[in-house]
């Protein structure tokens, strides 16, 4: 066997093995989640709230709705900002010095541990407001989303062939028409899947919420009050002393994992849909 | 080249002492020529001679990128289009362009053709429909797409997409239409359809056509400008350029290409 073929073979074996190891752990996690948690999932989990500590039953309604609220508002803040900034970088800033600085900052921000963002918002919002709040949680998550949305929108728009822009300009289109009617439209599928990825990325976050939206014993969805979320509730219940809490923590883990998977799969399906059209 | 304007008809475009620079690099130098109204002018010349560069001056496409600059004058109907105060949007409504690669927009066939019409302010639904149909017929595409006007234009074949681009460009009734090697990526049948369209369209508007295909230039154009290294080497009636060129360089280029 020649050296080249041997190296080829070796590369293939090593990468296949790594992929298999990765898949093995992924399936292990998912299967043990289902095995250990699935029978704690029932209708009550979605419709009832917590019962007194130590009692049996109860559910995660507050945590689920709270999670939706915190992530929903984070998306309302983060997606438009990320989208517009991404469009700015690709269509206005291009390769200017400022744009490249912003690109680098975005890359750096995506690798900041999320707990740091939590502490930052704690100092910025929670301390001045005097209490934990749903809004602070949303802001923390939106700060996690923004750089992800910016980089992916920037990259996706830069893939749009320049000929398309020129063709629109050649018809006398003003810049905003070129951007919103042609460029964004061409890239819309990629943009939507980037948004879905950004949402799924913050859906499972616990650390930044511990310092911001915290948790609450009272079912309140006010923006200026602390709020329950699936991730923090799961963390609290898993650490707690009661069996019933552990069961609910398993249920929360399943709900979270499958929502994240769902968002990821949806974004994949979206991309496939693009290529098949 | 000294100024040559020996056209037998109404003058549409007059290029005077024209230079163009990409940053510090001079890409076109000292161009002086004029274009007759309602005819086809072919721009020929070796690769890198500046054909595309010149074609993109007429609708000020170069303004999209920083550091490019023009010197001299390009008069269209006696109005200098290089005037910094000119409205580029208005200019580009009047001077259309069809590119080398088909560039269908990611929207329906109808929307593609209506795109330019909406830009010039046509909102009335029936007028819009009328003009889209007219343009598609004018681009010899109507029969092939009349049953699927609302389907995505990017699913059309390359040749159909190029005709769609022509429909889109003629829909707004431009005065000048610039083609930059618009048949270079097409099969012979599509190419011949588009050549027919250009000849037909040139009855009502002035066409400037960049081409590498000398037979094509001979088939469709009335005048030909031969460029080399950003300079205009020879400008004359097409049959004179092809049968009796005066400049040695033109001769060599045409002989080299013809065999
Ligand atoms: N954006 C640009 N920046 C700098 N120089 C450029 C740019 N575009 C073209 N040039 C240069 O200008 C000269 C003319 O190029 P142009 O594209 O106009 O040639 P062309 O005649 O259209 O060639 P082809 O037949 O290969 O299309 C070439 O030397 C080219 O390298
Ligand atoms: Mg060219």
Termini separation of chain B (Å)? 27 Å
DSSP E strands of chain A, number: 0
- In the CATH scheme, the class of the largest domain in chain A would be Mainly Alpha
- Give the CATH architecture of the largest domain in chain A: Orthogonal Bundle
Q: What does the overall shape of chain B look like?
A: globular
Biggest sheet overview of chain A: none
* Residue runs with pLDDT of under 50 for 5 or more positions of chain B: none
Strand content of chain A: under 5%
Radius of gyration of chain B: 18 Å
Task: For the record, give the distance between the C-alpha atoms at the N and C termini of chain A, rounded to a whole number.
Answer: 44 Å
> Uncertain spans of chain A, ≥5 residues at pLDDT below 50?
none
Highest-level CATH class of chain B: Alpha Beta
Query: Mean of the pLDDT scores of chain B?
Result: 93
The number of distinct β-strands of chain B equals: 10
How would you describe the shape of chain A?
globular
Can you write the helix and strand succession of chain B as a string?
EEEHEEHEHHHHEHEHEEHH
Explained architecture:
The complex is a heterodimer of chains A (277) and B (259). Chain A is mainly alpha-helical. Chain A has two domains: 2-40; 44-276, MetI-like (MetI-like fold, Orthogonal Bundle). Chain A contains twelve helices and no strands. Chain A has helices spanning 3-37, 43-47, 61-93, 97-110, 114-129, 134-158, 162-170, 175-186, 188-203, 207-210, 230-239, 243-276. In chain A, helix 3 (61-93) packs across helix 11. The mean pLDDT of chain A is 93. Chain B has helices at residues 51-55, 88-94, 109-119, 125-138, 142-145, 158-171, 188-201, 214-220, 238-243, 248-258; strands at residues 11-22, 25-36, 40-44, 68-76, 79-80, 95-98, 176-180, 206-210, 223-228, 231-237. In chain B, helix 3 (109-119) packs parallel to helix 6. The two termini of chain B are 27 Å apart. Chain B contains ten helices and ten strands. At the A-B interface, helix 7 and helix 8 of A face helix 2, helix 3 and helix 6 of B. The complex binds adenosine-5'-triphosphate (ATP) and magnesium ion. Residues 51-52 of chain B line the site of magnesium ion.
């Amino acid at each position: 066997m020649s050296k080249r073929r041997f190296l080829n073979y070796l590369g293939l074996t090593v990468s296949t093995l790594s992929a298999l190891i990765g898949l093995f752990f992924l399936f292990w996690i998912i299967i043990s989640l289902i095995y250990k948690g699935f029978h704690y999932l029932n209708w009550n989990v979605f419709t009832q709230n917590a019962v007194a500590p130590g009692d049996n039953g109860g559910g995660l309604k507050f945590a689920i709705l709270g999670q939706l609220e915190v992530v929903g508002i984070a998306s309302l803040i983060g997606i438009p900002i990320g989208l517009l900034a991404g469009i700015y970088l690709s269509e206005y800033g291009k390769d200017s010095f400022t744009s490249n600085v912003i690109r680098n900052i975005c890359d750096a921000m995506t690798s900041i541990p999320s707990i740091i963002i939590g502490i930052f918002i704690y100092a910025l919002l929670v301390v001045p407001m005097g209490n934990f709040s749903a809004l602070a949680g949303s802001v923390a998550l939106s700060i996690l989303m923004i750089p992800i949305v910016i980089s992916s929108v920037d990259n996706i728009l830069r893939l749009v062939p320049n000929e398309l822009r020129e063709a629109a300009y050649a018809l006398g289109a003003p810049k905003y028409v070129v951007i919103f009617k042609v460029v964004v439209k061409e890239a819309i599928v990629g943009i939507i899947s980037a948004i879905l990825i950004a949402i799924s990325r913050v859906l499972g976050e616990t650390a930044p919420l511990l310092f911001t939206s915290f948790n609450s014993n009272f079912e309140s969805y006010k923006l200026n009050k602390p709020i329950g979320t699936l991730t923090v509730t799961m963390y609290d219940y898993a650490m707690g002393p009661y069996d019933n809490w552990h069961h609910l923590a398993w249920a929360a883990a399943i709900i979270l994992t499958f929502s994240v998977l769902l968002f990821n799969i949806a974004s994949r399906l979206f991309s496939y849909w693009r290529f098949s059209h | 080249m000294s100024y040559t304007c020996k056209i037998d008809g109404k003058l549409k475009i007059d290029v005077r002492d024209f230079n163009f620079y990409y940053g510090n690099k001079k890409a076109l130098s000292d161009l002086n020529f004029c274009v007759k109204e309602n005819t086809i002018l072919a721009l020929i010349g070796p690769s890198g001679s500046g054909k595309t560069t010149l074609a993109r001056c007429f609708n000020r496409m170069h303004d999209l990128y920083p550091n490019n600059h023009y010197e001299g004058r390009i008069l269209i109907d006696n109005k200098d289009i290089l005037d910094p105060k000119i409205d580029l949007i208005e200019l580009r409504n009047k001077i259309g362009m069809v590119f080398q690669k088909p560039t269908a927009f990611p929207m329906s066939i109808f929307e593609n053709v209506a795109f330019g019409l909406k830009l010039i302010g046509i909102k009335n639904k029936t007028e819009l429909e009328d003009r889209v149909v007219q343009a598609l017929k004018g681009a010899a595409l109507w029969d092939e797409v009349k049953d699927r006007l609302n389907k995505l234009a990017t699913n059309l074949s390359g040749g159909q997409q190029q005709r769609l681009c022509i429909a889109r460009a003629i829909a707004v009734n431009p005065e000048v239409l610039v083609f930059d090697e618009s048949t270079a990526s097409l099969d012979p049948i599509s190419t011949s359809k588009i050549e027919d369209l250009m000849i037909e369209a040139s009855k009502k508007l002035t066409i400037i056509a960049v081409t590498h295909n000398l037979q094509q230039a001979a088939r469709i154009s009335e005048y030909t400008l031969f460029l080399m290294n950003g300079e205009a080497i020879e400008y004359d009636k097409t049959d004179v350029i092809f049968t009796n060129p005066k400049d040695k360089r033109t001769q060599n280029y045409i002989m080299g290409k013809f065999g």
